[in-house]
Amino acid sequence: MQDMRLRKSVSYVSSVLISFGPINLCQSIASSDKALGFLLDIFHSEEDVDPRVILNVCSVLHAVLQTNPLEVLRAIASRGSDIAAMVYYLDIDAVAELLINILESTCSSTVHPKAFQSALPILSNERIFHLLATRLEECAEDAENDFYCMNTLDNLEFTFRSLVSNLNSKYVKYQTNVAMKMLDIYREVEPVYRMLNAGLYAAEGDSDAHALRVSVKILSGLLDSFKETRTDETMNRLEPIEQVLLSKAFELISIVDEVLVAGSIQPSPLLGLNRLEIVDMFATAFEVCTMKTCEALITIGVLGSLLELLSQFKRNSLLHVRVARGIDGLLMRSDTMTRKLIFFRFSLVPRVMDLWDSNTNSRHGQDSEEYRSVLLLISYSIWKCLDSTRTDSPSDDLESLISTPALAEFERFTEEIARDR
Predict the structure, then answer these.
(1) Cα–Cα distance measured from residue 167 to residue 173, given in angstroms and rounded to the nearest whole number
(2) What is the mean pLDDT of residues 102-130?
(3) Which of 9, 57, 68, 357 could form a disulfide with 30 if both were Cys (CB 3.0 to 4.6 A apart)?
(4) Each residue of 20-61: pLDDT tens digit?
(5) Does residue 297 carry a pLDDT above 90?
């Protein structure tokens, strides 16, 4: 009983003094295992703790976490069960905020691998994920003018990107079952859809489209996580993410097209960055999505917009790399039906050759070595795809993919390139 009375003495006054007082108060708590243990043990109480006490403890821990994150994270990692105990009090808003702050600090800090593993209960909690989606929706309202919203968006972006990369790191490889169970939460349709929709909504009024860029990065990061986990089980989990992508693909590619013609999105220093993120997401989709989804994206106009970007931004090497990666990933994974769509209906070869001709015949001559190089890379990807069709599936006549004159012209084209090199 005396111990409980002591714990309940974490008063509002003391929490305010620590949270807003001299920084050395926080440093003293962080450097003391006994002090940190005293605070964290409150979440392990066998009796229900007064919500006001929990609120005050969260205020203190948040302040200490802001000034000395490594010490707090190491203490939580060494104790092992504090996060799960905090989740029990998730109905208290301050606990949810503290858990998200712990998650952000874990992803942004170089700590012992156990620190990330101890954060798994946060990552696998459905309510936390929906709370992050709600945060993005709220920030979409005032993302342009509200500094707090901008800071929250930056934290959301970094947290999700770090989350996905950490899932495929060597530290959690041996915890595959735990990690994959957690990934089920992050591949739910509703919250991912809400995040992307919030970004698109914000783009209508936010000249920097900051919320859009964050939501696109989240979706791109989730798609990217499938590169290392391509099994029958994980591919089944890809379907919900593909649903979200297809539901908003037309709006996203329309934004790229509007960028091309200086449409509704207002010019800003971040305009090119937004374009890069959308292109990067579609390039990743071509690398990991099913052929059915890739065919739908081609039909919507994604591949055409990527080539149009090449023709209009001939000196943007960052854009070139992403477009070439997406086309190569698509061609190398394509089946017969997809190749017919790419070469016969979409006429990829004539389009690429037109890009080469327009570059050669322009008044500036060759615009840049980078632009020439990306056309070479795309041409080589086409050649590899056609060559594998000839080698692996002799029954599939190449003329069903590309007409004989066009094929002959492309072969002469590649021979000339080889001689020039």
Answers:
(1) 8
(2) 65
(3) 68
(4) 455 567 777 777 788 888 888 888 887 778 888 888 888 888
(5) yes
**C-alpha dist (Å) from residue 85 to 37, 95, 132, 203, 364:** 13, 11, 20, 39, 66
User: Rounded to whole angstroms, how far apart are CA atoms 322 and 385?
Assistant: 19
Whole-number Å distance between alpha carbons of 341 and 337: 6
Q: Is the dihedral of CA 299, 300, 306, 311 positive or negative?
A: positive
Q: Which pTM was predicted?
A: 0.73
Instruction: Collect all residues with Cβ–Cβ distance below 8 Å to 7 and sequence separation of at least 6.
Output: 38, 41, 42, 45, 49, 53
pLDDT at 296 over 90: yes
Rg (CA), the chain: 26
And the tokens for 88? 């029990």
Enumerate residues 6+ apart whose C-beta is below 8 A from 54: 42, 43, 89, 92, 94, 95
Q: Which two tokens stand for residue 304?
A: 């055409």
